[in-house]
Structure formats: structure tokens, C-alpha cells
Amino acid sequence: MENLDLNKYQLAWKNEKSFQAEKLSEIEIQNFMKSASKIVAQYKRSLVFDIVFKSILLISFLVLIFLLKNQSIAILTNSFFVFIATIGIIWQTKVSKRADKISVTKEHLKDLLRAYIDFYNGLYVKSIFVNALSSTLFFLNGSLFYLYFKYEHIPTFELDDFIVLTVGIILSYGVSAFAQIKQNEYQIKQLESCLVEIEENTINASSIKKYRTNRIKNIVTIGIALIIGVIIFLYLIFGITR
User: Fold this and answer.
1) How much is the pTM?
2) CB-based burial of residue 127 (10 Å sphere; 0-12 exposed, 13-18 middle, 19+ buried)?
3) 200 contacts 48 by C-beta, under 8 angstroms
4) Helix axes 133-151, 205-240, angle to 10 degrees
5) Cα(46)–Cα(95) distance, rounded to whole angstroms?
6) 96, HSE (Cβ side, Cα atoms, 13 Å)
7) HSE-CB of 194 using CA atoms within 13 angstroms
């Protein structure tokens, strides 16, 4: 009996599958990348959101400086937070401009994807740690406002207050940084997977559907994480003021 040539049949099956799959033109893939999947746009939105959020926090700390003008320590503390927020805004603005330059200088889709992957493996990773500062500043800002509206000044902290405040700072920064790092790794894998399929000419309509499904799952996961973060934030705020 003649031996079966498994490689021949596997190749024939792949060719049949490739033939049946609905191939996409580069223009369709590029439109998918820029509008449908939102993979690249999510990075830019997160940078813009963080810049706006830090700007709001900066203004809030300035308001606290005005409200607490009779407490020198509070003024110095809030001035330090204003400085941190300002540095963060400047850094994130610089990163956002670097991201915009990539799309301008790269015309071919594959070159654009490679450039984005390199960018988000490099400079953007550093910006994640700057981004995570927003959560900590938000926690501190909310705590100070709550104390002011409750006591009309910032009371002297006891040891347990410092412990709760320290835990809040560590959690707000650590959880935010960890979540964003995981999000960044996921997005990079999406970009790398898309690049491989484009280079191998295997991307099709089912691939786009898969990317969209994964994106929805990722958004839901992030939403749940945000809700949990808000619950922890409120718990710590009320823990300080008990």
C-alpha cells in the first residue's frame, strides 16, 4: 500500500482554506487598523485623556492651595503635587507628539505597524509610569477635599491615618501601573499578530472579527478593573476620615 503523504494533504487543506477565506486589500486592512479595531487610536486617546485628567487635578490642587492658605504645610504639600502634575503633563504631551510623528513619516502599513510596535515597546512603556501618577494624585486630591469639606481644614494625621494614606498611595499607583502594563502588552500582541498576518498574507474577514471580539472583551475587563479601583478608593477615603 502506498504511504500517505501527510504533508501534501496538509498543504492542500491550507491552500483550500486560504482560497475560501475572504482576502482583504491593504486599504481595507489599513482602514480596519485606523477605525474599526481602534488598536492604535486607543494609545493616543489614553495619552490625551491623561493630559486632560492631570490638568484638572492641577487646577484642583491650586484650588486647595487657595482654600488652605492659612496652613503652610498644606500649601507646600499641594504645591509639590502641582509640580508633579505639571511635569507629568509636559512628559505626556511630548510622548503624544512622538506618536503623531510616526503616522506622518510612515506611509506603508507594515512600516507603520513596525514603528508603532517599537514605539510602544520603548518610550510609551515609560509613559505608563507617568500615567499611573494620575491615580495617586486623584486619591490624594480626593482625600484632601473630603477632609477640607468635613473639617474646613486639614486635621493633624495620626499614625493610623498615615498607614491608610500610604496604603492608598501604593495601591492607587501600583494597581494602575500594573493594569496599564498588561493592557499595553495585550495591545502590542494585537499589533504584532496583525503584522504577522499581513506579512504572511493570511489576514481575512474572520481575523478582523476576532480582533473586534478580543477588543470588546478587553474593554469589559478594563471597565471591571476601574469599578473595583473606585470602590477601593472610596473605602480608603472613608478609612482616613473615620
Assistant:
1) 0.70
2) buried
3) no
4) 30
5) 11
6) 19
7) 32
Phi-psi group of 200: left, alpha or beta (phi > 0 → left; psi -120 to 50 → alpha; rest → beta): alpha
Which residues partner with 204 through β-bridges?
A: 23
Burial of 2 (0-12, 13-18, 19+ CB in 10 A): exposed
Return the SS3 of 227: helix
Q: Is 23 helix (H, G, I), strand (E, B) or coil?
A: strand
Low-confidence ranges of the chain (pLDDT < 50): 1-22, 35-37
Q: What amino acid is encoded at 8 in this protein?
A: K
Cell digits of residue 30: 489599513
Q: How many CA atoms lie within 13 A of 220 on its CB side?
A: 6
Q: What CA–CA distance (Å, rounded) separates 130 from 68? A: 27
CB of 38 closer than 8 Å to CB of 44? no
Report the alpha-carbon distance of residue 53 to residue 85 in Å, rounded: 10
pLDDT of residue 5: 46
Among 99, 121, 125, 123, which residue's Cα sits nearest to residue 112?
A: 99
Phi, psi of 240 (to 5 degrees): -70, -35
* Euclidean distance between CA atoms 34 and 41, whole angstroms: 7
Calculate ∠ Cα 19-13-191, nearest 5°.
65
What is the three-class DSSP state of 37? coil
